Amino acid sequence: MLTGGLALSAKEIRMEYRDRQTRQELVAIERMDLDIPEGQFVTIVGPSGCGKSTFAKIVNGLLPATHGTVEVRKAANGRDHAMVFQDSSLFPWYSVLSNVAYGLVCQGVSKKEAQERAMPLIRLVGLDGFEQKYPYQLSGGMQQRANLARALTVDPELLIMDEPFAALDAQTRELMQAELLRIWNASNKTVLFITHQIDEAIFLSDRVVVMSARPGRIIADIAIDLPRPRELRVKRTPEFVAYEEKIWNLISIQLTSVGGRTGEAA
Amino acid sequence: MTATATMRPVRNPDARRHRTRPGRWFRRHERVVLGSVGVIGLLLIWEIGSRMGLIEDFFFSRPTSIVAAGIKEVQIPRFWNDVRVSGFEFATGYIGAVVLAIPIGLIFGWYRRVSYMADPWLNLLNSLPRVALLPLIALWIGIGIESKIAVVFLGAFFSVVIPTVQGVRTVDRRFLDVAHSFGASQRRLFTSVVLPGTVPFVVTGLRLGIGRGLIGVVVGELYAQTDGLGVIISRASSNLQPDRMFFAILIFTFTGIVGVESLRRVERYFQRWRPVREER
Asked: Phi/psi of residue A193, each to 5°?
């Protein structure tokens, strides 16, 4: 049972897997303990290959952890958790509307009702007028808006976002960060966000969790004490830059300690 | 570096062409125009060569004779009977093959272990030239219409099954993850992810199957001469009537073209979610 006020509690998560080519046992995640109170926006940053995406998949139930438990707050109605995937995870054969309604349809809601309930979220993410388009007709940023709407439609207690803006160009990414905060303010979900962009992590979060290089574990858990609502301008304030430097230092030690080997596997 | 340096305008070599009005018209209809020129040109060479005695018309006939033979042929009641028989053989064998091949392909593709068991047989039977089985089939079910249906069936069945299996197996992992993450049921997983991803493969198979099925009809009828267009070909051959042969061959060709073209339309309908790929 989750104790009061927690949306997510992951305890002693360990993840091992067997490399198919080298037939070696690898440890992707050494140990992760993470509690997220309801309504908090928490971001995990870490060097590539540290297991942060793996952790997101474990929380989402897509991968079984080798060891440990994940508890997610039971939703009164709606799903316990929903995931916003990396780029181009919209079904290319469905219109935007069908894509956004997909989660509800999976729960057995009739297609018509699902689409009716999807419309407000399409409006929320700023895609009204595009609901009949196919994904290939949308820009990368718009696709990720639809992706976000698809996850929000099922009204999840916990929203998991796995590097959703990684494939976007730098300017679109900034805009989407601001948009995400606006949408988050409107929906007030608990968010677990995964990224390798330090500024993105600070800008969005209440808390930034820094992971070590593989095998991954938490090396810092930093509360971001910047006033909300935040605008992109906040990124140029001294407080923001100080956070950036602090986190970058933590990560750069990780990068040098393994002699640049971290890039070899995702 | 000095004042003598000159600037040269950059010219796109394509920009000068097609400036005139007929030039532009040609550019827009290039494909159709050149295609027609190719077809008509070759037919003209054939016709003229034959009339000038450069092409032996006793063996090769000529376009106008083929048309004339065709006009004569369609007035014979027996011809229509042959068309009906060949058409029935093809339609029955092909439709039967498709109706069985698509679900079987989906099952083999989806259940990995089932497919491991079936794979050796599929590969074996697919590599086997199916017409080689014809004598055996004739032995089992006679030389009537059934044996030809069977050959068409075999030809089309494997052409559809194999790409369908392939299609299901290559379904994108990402989309399966999305479906799982929203708690999709097995059935929904199948209809929302596996089927749409497999359609292009199935259509490819359907297209291949038309050609293979037609081969089945012709060879079957050549082998066991009872009725059908294949019989017209073989009889015209022994009577030294190349024009009649060409006419019958053209009917097969035409059937193939119509079939493939209509499938292309079906494909376009199912693939409207894909960006239209412009040819250069």
From this structure: -115, 135
